[in-house]
């Protein structure tokens, strides 16, 4: 409990650093937002100055930063100039969309990479081991947007198995009432099987794209960790005492090999939060990643700052969960800290 409290307190200066860094980075972007939102580069200087005053860009950077901190203290992330809506509302509407894609891709990668890595470690040099190496190499070598475009070309354009990559659901199917924001769950709760199948089909290719990106480090770490544990003295002792191979692998080897894998899980999930920006653009997925990228193009400061702050908070939360999992898997790890 004290460890969790310590990490929560340590997150405060980290979040402040993220707020300061994102604020300064957005201010050094090339281009003038006032001219962009004025809508006409040929407007006179007075009209552009009026736009700059309405955006608060006429004040000094310290003044702008203090105003931004005051807004954050009241839970106000600002307003998106592009959409005219509060940033908090935009992020809350789009976060479940990104979370559904990321979680589904993460679970797909997890339940594929861990068994694959274990089987590869149990039979080094076998066909399964070679497949694990091949998948890991491809996952590391290919950028996510290239993988997504290849999958679209093969399964949508050539084979015709996948639906058109135009978002979360077929435009001719009505969206169910929003309950959780997760379309798969909401369609199940409403008993709308047609919408569930349609949304699941739209989810397959982007989820596989992100899963291939996450599968590579997970499979490699699982294989390496299992090989290290299987060659240790206590495994040989367990086998010498007559324990079944199944008991040795599952009860002793697998559990001890999980600590470095859990660390990799946290890092991989954090990387996926950044990778979903490109994946959402490729598949026209209306999540916060696509929203942040469009805001970057239009020099809309507030959504960018809100996006980075939310990503930092999720990253810190993931690290906290990893710490807790460490203690659950091996209590000695908590005592050593």
Q: Can you walk through the features of this model?
A:
With 337 residues, this protein is an all-alpha fold. It is 77% helix and 0% strand. It has 14 helices and no strands. The protein has helices at 2-27, 33-38, 45-54, 61-73, 87-122, 127-141, 144-158, 183-190, 193-230, 233-240, 245-282, 288-297, 301-329, 331-336. Helix 6 packs across helix 9, helix 7 crosses helix 9 (193-230) and helix 11 packs parallel to helix 12 (288-297). The mean pLDDT is 82.
C-alpha geometry: globular
Largest sheet: none
Strand content: under 5%
Give the number of DSSP strands. 0
What's the mean pLDDT score? 82
Counted by DSSP, the helix tally is 14
Structural class: mainly alpha
User: Which spans have pLDDT < 50 for at least 5 consecutive residues?
Assistant: none
The termini sit apart by: 13 Å
Compressed to H and E, one letter per element, the order equals: HHHHHHHHHHHHHH
Helical coverage, percent range: over 70%
Report the C-alpha radius of gyration, rounded. Answer: 24 Å
Keywords for this entry:
globular; mainly alpha; 337 residues
Describe the secondary-structure layout:
Blueprint: H1 2-27, H2 33-38, H3 45-54, H4 61-73, H5 87-122, H6 127-141, H7 144-158, H8 183-190, H9 193-230, H10 233-240, H11 245-282, H12 288-297, H13 301-329, H14 331-336
Helix pairs in contact: 1-13, 5-6, 5-9, 5-11, 5-13, 6-9, 7-9, 7-11, 8-9, 9-11, 11-12, 11-13, 12-13
